[in-house]
Write the structure tokens for this entry.
Amino acid sequence: MTTIKNNRVSVSILWLFFIIASLSYIRSNINIVSDIQQFMPTDSNNKRLQVLLHETTKGTASNLILVQLAGESPEYLTNLSKQLKHSLLLDNNLFESISNGDNIDNTSSFEPLMEYRYLLSKDNDFSVNTLREHFKGILTVLRNGLSGEMVNYLFLDPTRTLASYLVAQSKQIKTNKVNGVWFLSEQSKALLTIQLKSTGFNLDVQQASINTIKNTFEKLDTKNKAEIILSGSSIIAVAIRDSIMETTRQVSWVLAFIILLLFWYGYRSIRLAFVASIPLATAIVIAISVTQLIFNEVHGIVLAFGITMLGVCLDYPLHLFSHLKKGESTKKTLNKIWPTLRLGVITSILAYIALIGTGFSGLTQLAVFSAVGLLTALFVTRWLLPEWVDESWTNKRQFFISYPLRYKYKIILSLFIIVLPISILIIHQDIWSNDISQISPVPVDLRETDRDLRRALNATDLNHLFLIEGEDVDEVLRKTENLTSAIEPAIKEGVLTGTYSAADIFPSKINQKRTQSLLPNKQMLSLNVTAAMKGLGFKENAFDSFINSVAKSKTQPTVDYEKILLSPLAVKLKSLLFKQDTNWYSIIRVTGVNDEAVFKAWLKDSPNIGQHYMSIRGATNVLMNQYLQSAWLRFLGVLTLVIFIVFWLSHRRKSTIWLLIPVVAGVVVSMTVQVLLGHLINIFHILSLLLVIGMGLDYSLFFNRDWTSVPELQERTHAIIISAITTMAAFGILGLSNIPILSAMGQTVSVGIITCFVIAQRIAVPKIILQGNK
Amino acid sequence: MIKIFCLCCIIFVTNTSVAFGLELSELLVDISKMPEKFSRFTETRTSSFLSKPLVSKGNLEFKAPAILIKKLISPEKSEQRINGDMLSITNNDSSTQTLSLSTYPELEIGINAIRWVLSGDFINLKNSFDVTFKEYEQLWQLHLRPKNIDVIKKIKNITLIGKGAKITTIKIEHTNDDSVIMDLYDHH
């Protein structure tokens, strides 16, 4: 007795030591990332697509927040928009820039560009007639009452070169303006864009920025009637985190309640419920630690998906508890079920290991996470639980059991449950989803709000664009200018209405020098100015600062990338011209493609232009097709491996087929239900099917264990019923989630599990050795 | 003795400001009695960039509390409409430009001074300016010196001269010696 107690204490101390060590390691080292690219093929040949995806998910665009103000009169919303912009700009730590349409009014923020205006502008006209028109315009401005710095600015830049340059930079935003600020066309919603400072995708910093925006809005909305709607990658990321946490919390509570209820009813013991959670909890902690140790990070999806997949670990103690009987030690009971338990776990582990080396770094992480978790749970169940659990703790309540069908009915049921779903899948030819948005964890309503705002602000429409690559900024700019010139004939033909690129903000050195060489010398400009101002009432030296500015521009060095970054155009420039690894990339955006067929035909006829063309939607669709094909083949590979392992390790090879039918049925039925619900199969459905394989095989193995008495059959049915109910409950709730990944996972697993359970029970072929009456 | 002197000073100072406050506020109440006002104007603008003053003529219209419309008739037509914080300028060629007054504090302060006087907003005037009010014969003069440190670097003084409830002259003096004098007449 003392030995047992000593063992229990030492085992407990050892377990506690590992748990505390792992938790400390996790606490100080955990690095959770949420980059969907890790679930994309890393060995993809489409490097250019990866560059664009990286730019949209991690670049400047990822820190852009789109804001809608609604629910009040246009006048009220206009003032609110301005006050919000003004107040937020005071917080320099969080916000890089804020635009609401009135930023060009404030020329002082563009001061860094002032001295370069004649090199940045493409159309400098200093003829006498043009100058005279501009000078007359200054008199009009003076009569209109403008004064102070604005007037000084006009005498420094009478041709309004900087203002025209800045207006050209906002030409791609066609949004309506009411009282100088952006509005949606119906004038009921004011629009702003807020660029966060680079957060390195730190969700806590993004959350702080979002809270600041909301709190500032609430303070400024004195009427308390206006509403603020935020969108953008960071908003979506934070919303998803909150939504996943909320769903997880709900699932945890419901699951905990159901587990307690089932243990109370099924085992008449609440204490066992807590013991049952030990292998699962240990598995999660150790899996996170090992994954972090190997990869230096844990992907958010791996965490969510991996923990869910480890839900199967709850079954191991269930099998043990349901097989416990008075007068038989826990260790002895465990030894009896050990071969079956081991076969199920090893098969699952090998299946997950098969995911390693797929070329998807996210899947490799998921494989390691799941394999380590399963192994840990098996270890805890095998060597630790028997030390803690006493056989007297359980007093099972027997459940209703149904016996396996007769042989011919087994064949009919098997054919029906496999052939029918497969036929349905074949009839629905197009069952695969190649839409990248389907694997995005973003709820549909959030995605639609974001799309509407982006459309209104023309923020980033990456459907049609040209991508240019080069070794340095100037090389990329030159190529961009050349390509833009090559596209111009198509604009004249009406194939598209225009282009917009970094070269519009920032010409290449060669073009700047060409512009510079065309500037008049000081003497010639002085003569033109004198002639132009004749009779208008200006003092002789009124435009001396202007003449000196042009003269200075004639000899000054060209503008470089860093200079532009000092101005409010930095955000726009960085989204169009950026560096990744060692290369520089430039994006030419296209507007006004009304006829896709004509556009595509033009691209086909212009191979020199077409080679730079990119459509993120098109390219990702192709990529997703390849990805799904590859993932599906890998999944079939895993299934084949499972079949092979089961066949190899099973002691009754002739009946292996009956072990596998429930697993296959679970897979095809859950896929068919998804298709019949109108969903297309995506990568997360396929990953969820791995869990169906794992749990289905577990049920199948236990139902097919030899039994010698009806109580023995009742024991295994008892464990599997409890397992199936808890799994169904957890995944059923997930299936109702509005997050696509979670609902795909929930629906697939719950349908798959119930199918596996029913089929495994009805077609099992255990060797029945009854000791007594049949 | 000293105590009595101090007490006298306090009484004198208090009485003066009370008397001054009442006189100006009474005038502002009189001015604000007409919620809509219209007058013709001649504006003379001097600038360090101009060799001779720029003269223009037009109409000035005010609708309490915040709409001010300035229409130029000669030498060329244009219209400035100020509503709240927004200034819309429509030029001779019908092109319109919209500005936010808060972006241009030196422009905003001049316009607000006129709007607050016309709408009788004594509190805003006192908050934004050091106010000096004088009366002589039948005329009065309201001298406004901006309190905002940034504005005072650009606007030296704003002076309004009037007779009874009518404003006859508005003068804005800039720190760079530029000035605008607007003579108002034909009030109704």
In short: The first helix of chain A runs from residue 2 to 29.
